[in-house]
Amino acid sequence: MSNKVFDSANFVALDTLPEIDDTTSVADAYRLLGGAGRAAFSYAQGGQRFIVKANELLNRLYGGADISTIRQRTYWSMGDAMRRLNMPTVKVAIEAQGVSAEEEAQPLLDQGAKQAFLVTEGDRSLGWLFNDDALLEVATKRLVYICGNSHENPDPDHGTCYQCPAKIVRSELR
Ligand SMILES: [Zn+2]
What's the CA-to-centroid distance between 153 and ligand 1, angstroms? Predict the structure, then answer.
């Protein structure tokens, strides 16, 4: 059965994920992400484009940190956050060589080592083909941010709940 890249369940359209750059603050990045209702964003660094798993990034930023540290980190630029924290699996590099929307998806999905392809039509970028379940999940689901009193938040703001003073303790994919 024919299954073109564009029709594949592993295809994610470009405009569904926010594009974050080095200068965007961590708090603003998560606000954009909340607005988009996704758990991943597109991020460029040093001429290379990545998809960032926002749930893993949040764990690195918030995990085990006290509230004043968390608060400080929400004001970091995303560039600073990426440089200061060692997080090899948080960002996944997009294959520089794009694939056509009309290509058969299966041979690409069978390439185990490669996780994300840029999908193009002529000169236009249409989105990505994700060859990795964890990456596909964060690119198609949203995150809710849970405080110490179990309230749900649309974004983690500056580390505390919108409804009470408790800090955000975890995120959940929905
Ligand atoms: Zn709360």
Answer: 8
- Arch. (CATH architecture) of 5-144: Roll (3.10)
CA 119, CA 125: separation in Å to the nearest integer? 6
Distance (angstroms) between ligand 1 centre and the Cα of 134 equals: 28
Residue extents of the structural domains in the chain: 5-144
From 53, 86, 82, 74, select the one nearest 167 (Cα to Cα): 74
Q: What would the DSSP string read from start to end of 10-73?
A: TEEEGGGS-EE-TTSBHHHHHHHHHHHT-SEEEEEETTEEEEEEHHHHHHHHHTT--HHHHHHH
Q: DSSP label at 94?
A: P
Residue-wise pLDDT for 89-144, tens only, equals 899 999 878 899 999 999 999 987 778 999 999 999 999 999 999 999 999 999 99
Spacing, Cα 146 to ligand 1 middle (Å): 7
Give the whole-angstrom CA distance, residue 1 versus residue 168: 46
- Gap between the Cα atoms of 119 and 88, Å rounded: 24
Residues 6+ apart with CB under 8 A from 4: 101, 102, 103, 104, 105
**Encoding tokens for residue 57?**
């990034």
Q: From ligand 1's centre to the CA of 166, what distance in Å? A: 5
User: d(Cα 125, Cα 112) in Å, to the nearest integer?
Assistant: 23
